[in-house]
Amino acid sequence: QLQLQESGPGLVKPSETLSLTCTVSGGSISSSSYYWGWIRQPPGKGLEWIGSIYYSGSTYYNPSLKSRVTISVDTSKNQFSLKLSSVTAADTAVYYCARHKRVTPPDYWGQGTLVTVSS
Amino acid sequence: QSVLTQPPSASGTPGQRVTISCSGSSSNIGSNYVYWYQQLPGTAPKLLIYRNNQRPSGVPDRFSGSKSGTSASLAISGLRSEDEADYYCAAWDDSLSGYWVFGGGTKLTVL
Hints:
heterodimer, A: mainly beta, four-stranded antiparallel sheet, 11 strands, 50% strand, globular, B: mainly beta, six-stranded mixed sheet
């Protein structure tokens, strides 16, 4: 059974960089069929896709966040990571990692991790 | 402000049929498939409908999806208390380099 687990600091200061890692178990991140992505959900609000990566390192991002986002993959550890720079309070959200195919949205999700941006 | 527009709330009594709408544009719903997610409180979203009207295995046939032009709908028949959740539509948007867009979500209350 595929499982995804987010990890990282739950509190980040304004203007700093948010860093999260997603560990994939029960399956290989190097599968040729899937992309690995990040989605966030501010408290009480809707979902926002951040970006995704293929095991080869190919990425695509939400245009509204592209200038601040970097997603990377470490196939040796079966992990992929998110970095979001210059954060503000508006970046406070539950961050989910997920699996999807190129032409379909996520089918497997992590449980999510709350990241609060505050001094 | 979400790219896809949903009503913030919907409600119904047990056994009723309710529908939730999702409005987009030619660059997303108008030219791509629509997906629907169900999110129970405190949990990650669960895929409910894919490719406009297909149900993953395990999803009851009480849930159905449809699409027309730049709008889509999710219908839930035989409403049950456990259907009380947030529902989100999603679609690929062809603008710029292409990206996934979601609706703002609809909170369904079972009265």
